[in-house]
Amino acid sequence: MPTPSPPGRPGGIAISDSEKAETLPDNLETQFQPVTYPSVPAIIEMVDVALRSYFLTPASEPKLTDPDEVQEAIMGLKVSKASGPNGIPNRALKHLPQRAVSLLVQIFNAILLTHHFPTTWKHARVISILNPGKDPALPPSYWPIRLLDTIGKLIEKVLLARILHEVTSAD
What we know:
Layout: H1 17-31, H2 41-56, H3 67-75, H4 90-93, H5 98-114, E1 124-130, E2 142-148, H6 150-169
Antiparallel strand pairs: 1-2
Helix pairs in contact: 2-6, 3-6
């Protein structure tokens, strides 16, 4: 796979931080292309059907979440995972009192009712990790890690669990 050459540096070696910053997006674009041949078409089709069904539910009657769903998603969090931009560690979320879980339920239901996902939960902190044994001067030696806010990921987990439940119970 060809390495994009940073400005003024033949051979694709980025030396300064600014050259690395300019090279990283180009490198990621060459490494990560859209999947044109899904490896598991049957599962993808089932998820597509469930998503279409979910999104066709009238906005006036969304399927709201409840404390049990949110608590289950929280319990499924791994404490070893890094926190996102808001800095709230998963360990702290696992110790939330029931009142805080109830407030999360209210927030998540407001999102479902308004069909508005908060912009701050769409932001990620992206860090690059050097692959072991690779040349740190070459952009393909790094792989990106994106850290999203855990609260935003929680509602995604709740919705994904619901969709997967609908898909598996439809069989």
